[in-house]
């Protein structure tokens, strides 16, 4: 992107099909929303939540909102795809190439994609052909770890500056078994903030 909007739109998608294990998606959404509301940069963000998302809901939201950050929370099944919902609320898998094809259409507006779902590395790699910053999970991730990952990521994104104190404050997140994911996410946020002109290099 050559220029950036005054307000960054975060599109948060979630799906928990009927026959899949229950996830604490509402808690994750609440924690993210609370963190952004408390942040120093809260006026820079607009969080839009879409639940029980079907593929067509995803496509429509992208067209309507043209978000800069897209966050999906739910189930992943590796090579088979990410678990959206169908008209009956059951699993509708969307594979890596389909997701990459959709994001290619929005490469001029989307800066960051987060797939907070188990085994979503395959989809993340495909999307990364078109989007600068992408996070996917290479293995299974527990409910609590997924929530802590999201909280750490958005707390970092909403911070007014980066410092040693903020890095050390992430210890509680890292101790929950997500160390590598969190470190990579914080590094990504750092680069993203630099690119958007929210902070200067030191």
Question: What would your notes on this structure say?
Answer:
With 202 residues, the chain is α/β, with parallel strands linked by helices. It has one domain: Flavodoxin domain (Rossmann fold, 3-Layer(aba) Sandwich). It is built from seven helices and seven strands. It has helices at 25-38, 55-65, 96-105, 121-127, 143-157, 164-169, 171-195, and strands at 8-14, 45-50, 69-73, 82-85, 91-94, 112-116, 133-135. The strands form two sheets. Strands 2-1-3-6-7 form a five-stranded parallel β-sheet, with helices on both faces. The radius of gyration is 16 Å and the shape is globular. It starts with 7 loop residues before the first strand and ends in a 7-residue tail after the last helix. Residues 160-183 and 198-202 have low confidence and may be disordered.
Question: Uncertain regions: pLDDT < 50 for 5+ in a row?
Answer: 160-183, 198-202
How much of the sequence lies in strands comes to 15-25%
CATH class: Alpha Beta
Total domains, how many?
Answer: 1
Count of beta strands: 7
**DSSP helix count?**
7
End-to-end separation in angstroms reads 24 Å
The CATH architecture assignment turns out to be: 3-Layer(aba) Sandwich
- Give me the side-by-side strand order of the main sheet: 2-1-3-6-7
What structural class do the secondary elements suggest?
alpha/beta
| Mean residue pLDDT | 80
Largest sheet: 5 strands, parallel
Helix proportion? 40-55%
Shape: globular
SSE order, one letter for each helix or strand: EHEHEEEHEHEHHH
CATH topology: Rossmann fold
Going by CATH, what is the homologous superfamily?
A: Flavodoxin domain
Q: What would you report as the Rg, rounded to the nearest angstrom?
A: 16 Å
